[in-house]
Amino acid sequence: MLEFDTVPAERRPAEERAALLADPGFGRVFTDHMVTIRYAEGKGWYDARLEPFGPLSLSPATAALHYSQELFEGLKAYALPDGEVGLFRPQANARRLNTTAERLAMPQLPEELFLRAVWTLVEADREWVPTGEGQSLYLRPFMIATDPFLGVRPSSEYLFVVIASPSGSYFAGGAKPVTVWVSQDYSRAAPGGTGAVKAAANYAVSLRAQAQAQEAGCDQTVFLDAVEHRWIEESGSMNLFFVYERDGAPLLVTPPLNGSILPGVTRDSVLTLARHRGWGVEERPYSLEEWRSDAISGALRETFACGTGVVITSIGTARSRDGEFLIGGAAEGPVTSSIRDAIVGIQRGLAEDPFGWSLRRA
Ligand SMILES: *Cc1c(COP(=O)(O)O)cnc(C)c1O
């Protein structure tokens, strides 16, 4: 078994940490340590370390910098009521990392090593797991191709890193419904492409659309399918759910995993919870036209987006070049709140966890 060597960091004083944890925002404060593991073809994974958080030293020829052979994951650690720390479904992230690695011709990372890397960092920086309302320790594992070589081919060497960032809720303002921009100019992902995996490059190609969304006064972008520009796929970093009512119970509609939609762990959790509650669930193509006309007629009750960062956020308004429409009077609906409460309750160890989603260190 690959053991971690420890190079202890100089820990920041408690007062400095407390000041940073009071209002960490998202993704801008980092803990004292990071984990790194190297890979070389023919040798496998080696040189696992827990070391001080700090700059990486890379050749300017490093393959990842030129051709985006780079992947990432995102998951959260939560302070539990008994003082322990829980990770939310980390095995799902380990599996998805390997699906992404395969698509990007990168090496597989054993699930066991992924989990130990994450736990090693969480335990070393235990005091950085915030305890405030809506707060968590966001964990960002990523892998980059490190061959110092400009030829286009899969790298033979890689670096896997985990960093951690104490975070408040992703959108400042909390549960306020957001306004989304439906992008008709840009696609995020195409059939046969990389939309279904967590390739860093997917985000680079979505940034122009996100800038347009912001110019239009919107918080987030919604992407349509790349072929017909008609079917709703997902938001830039979140999966989407459309809430109807059928036979007096909620009915959740979400686009199917068609190869260009990212299979979110939160998406899967929402589907599992909804089925557990006996609600209707449909994974089927859902068009912009259907969204618009059902929102206007009132048949559509709610729309929400979900992902690790935000957990669940209500969508109140959808805007595009053709105008805008409101969903459910642009107020958060009861199904959205109830799903959020259930997932957050499990994450924080405050609710029963019938699915075994909150993991403690064995
Ligand atoms: C990560 C991600 C999501 C959400 O996945 P979670 O596992 O729920 O965090 C959704 N869409 C895209 C494009 C993503 O990269």
TrEMBL record:
InterPro entries, A to Z: Aminotrans_IV, Aminotrans_IV_CS, Aminotransferase-like, B_amino_transII, BCAT-like_C, BCAT-like_N, BCAT_family
TM ranges: none
Catalysed reactions listed for this entry: L-isoleucine + 2-oxoglutarate = (S)-3-methyl-2-oxopentanoate + L-glutamate; L-leucine + 2-oxoglutarate = 4-methyl-2-oxopentanoate + L-glutamate; L-valine + 2-oxoglutarate = 3-methyl-2-oxobutanoate + L-glutamate
Keyword Repeat in record: no
E.C. code: 2.6.1.42
This protein's pathway: Amino-acid biosynthesis; L-isoleucine biosynthesis; L-isoleucine from 2-oxobutanoate: step 4/4; Amino-acid biosynthesis; L-valine biosynthesis; L-valine from pyruvate: step 4/4; Amino-acid biosynthesis; L-leucine biosynthesis; L-leucine from 3-methyl-2-oxobutanoate: step 4/4
Single GO molecular function: transaminase activity
Pfam families named among the record's database cross-references: Aminotran_4 (PF01063)
Keywords recorded for this protein, A-Z: Amino-acid biosynthesis, Aminotransferase, Branched-chain amino acid biosynthesis, Pyridoxal phosphate, Transferase
Named cofactor requirement(s): pyridoxal 5'-phosphate
PANTHER family named among the record's database cross-references: BRANCHED-CHAIN-AMINO-ACID AMINOTRANSFERASE, SUBGROUP IIII AMINOTRANSFERASE
Family statement drawn from the similarity comment of this UniProt entry: Belongs to the class-IV pyridoxal-phosphate-dependent aminotransferase family.
Protein name: Branched-chain-amino-acid aminotransferase
Native organism: Dactylosporangium salmoneum
